[in-house]
Amino acid sequence: MSLRKTLTAVNQPSLPSDSSISAVNLDVSDSSASRINFRPRKIRKVSTDPLNPPLQITASPLSSKSTIDIALRHLQSSDEVLGTVISAHNNPPVFDSSCPPFLSLARSILYQQLATKAAKCIYDRFLSLFDGGESGVLPESVISISAVDLRKIGVSGRKASYLHDLAGKYLSGVLSDEMILEMSDEELIDRLTLVKGIGVWTVHMFMIFSLHRPDVLPVGDLGVRKGVKDLYGLKNLPGPLQMEQLCEKWRPYRSVGSWYMWRLIEAAKTKLSK
């Protein structure tokens, strides 16, 4: 079956759903939290000639249709193979989370290693512990809930320690929502992975779906790696270095390219199930 027919099989966009990457679902568009204003970031050097200063290309966060449209035009013109995938997919990417960073990170911890349905059930119980629901999930309120009380709603002891560590780092000033919004991608990885239970993959998902960073390539994500393998007809799953090399042409919109890799794998699964 052609690549176009395969992609057409998936009509509804969603977040990563591969069994290996379903632990975190940062789709929180129904949150009542105030929308965060994101700033454009300089993210790409396009000249390596020492006689000419490198030109910086600025890509805006993926929070508006106009930015998504620009990203799609860029990807279609820079990568003909990926362009076929984009053209075959009926729905454009959506990055519409409006959660504050602390809430998104707490939620990502709760969703780890759980099926989406079970994780949502625990998350809803977690919210019931706070006055105001999601708006009440603040560092001082999280740290005030004992591990025993968290275990009563289905949160493991280990995850309770992760939540307390995250809240503690906020209260000590190591982290804050304001700091997170100002950090570069590299700084985010360095700082957030200091929190117990948060690894590079979680930070990548957080940057894409919560902060809407446009140029994140989750090289360790199995779904994206499978997508790149199928897209370019590779014999084996690409490693981090090969991922960087193959997806270099997607800059400065590698987050959007990654989104289509998840859709590509979903389409392949749909095809096999028929």
Automatic annotation (TrEMBL):
Looking up SMART domains in the UniProt record yields:
ENDO3c (SM00478)
GO MF terms held by the record: alkylated DNA binding; DNA-3-methyladenine glycosylase activity; DNA-7-methylguanine glycosylase activity
Q: Which InterPro entries match?
A: Alkylbase_DNA_Glycosylase/TA, DNA_glycosylase, HhH-GPD_domain
Q: Which residues form the HhH-GPD domain?
A: 110-270
Assigned keywords, A-Z: DNA damage, DNA repair
What the entry lists under Pfam families is as follows:
HhH-GPD (PF00730)
Q: Family, per the entry?
A: Belongs to the alkylbase DNA glycosidase AlkA family.
User: What's this protein's name?
Assistant: HhH-GPD domain-containing protein
Its lineage opens with:
Eukaryota, Viridiplantae, Streptophyta, Embryophyta, Tracheophyta
